[in-house]
Amino acid sequence: MRILVIEDQQDILQNIADYLALKGYVVDCAHDGLGGLHLAITQPFDLIVLDGMLPGMDGFTLCRKLRQDAGIHTPVIMLTARDQVDDKLIGFQAGADDYLVKPFALPELQARIEAVLRRGQTGLGHRLQVADLSFDLNTLEVIRQGKPLKLNPIGLKLLEKLMKSSPSVVRRESLQEILWGDDVPDSDSLRSHIHLLRQIVDKPFATALIHTVHGIGYCLKAGDDGI
Questions:
Q1: What phi, psi does 152 have (nearest 5°)?
Q2: pTM of the predicted model, to two decimals?
Q3: pLDDT tens sequence across 81-128
Q4: Where do the domains of the chain lie, and which CATH numbers do they carry?
Q5: How many angstroms separate the CA atoms of 190 and 210, rounded?
Q6: C-alpha angle 74/75/78, rounded to 5°?
Q7: Is the backbone peptide bond immediately before 103 cis, with ω within 30 degrees of 0?
Q8: Which helix (H) or strand (E) segment is 179 a member of?
Q9: DSSP structural state of residue 53
Q10: How far apart are CA 57 and CA 47, in angstroms?
Q11: What is the distance between the alpha carbons of residues 192 and 11, in angstroms, rounded to a whole number?
């Protein structure tokens, strides 16, 4: 499980990161709102621990931008020093999944994380998420950065397999079998369909998610490691 912690107080950030790492989580950190927003949009996370008061952009605004502008529904636990009902309501209205008041015990934070992740596995099992790209398997709705994307049936099949396998490489033979079974077309149809998928999923946006692994297949992930 990969967790993003966005907290401007260095001692609190370090304590949370060290504790969660000991519990087996992969932890990324950001010290301000703008940096945290960039990571949350461009990298895949299972959960975000978000301080309400941050320099550059407060946590409530950050959470709202994730939900409304980027279309990202990664679970968020808000941290705040204020125990006011209005503050909690603002956090939940912004899209937070849970709320924890400072000071708190680290085992309590871990328990909240586990509870929110369990809820997410139960309620969102039909939705795939990689970076800022989401795919609802029930409605077949594909959204990137808050913008709906229109894919044909073959594009939807390709995207589902690539997202379910992310960030691993999917071999060409596996994709061909999903699309055509044993009756694979003679022409290089797979490359054409991948090209079309890229035109819709990647071309309108600054960051490419679909990558070619030459001689092997394709993968869908945030960032490019030169493949």
A1: -80, 170
A2: 0.58
A3: 766 666 677 878 888 888 898 889 999 999 999 988 877 654 445 778
A4: 2-123 (3.40.50.2300), 127-220 (1.10.10.10)
A5: 14
A6: 125
A7: yes
A8: helix 172-180
A9: S
A10: 19
A11: 51
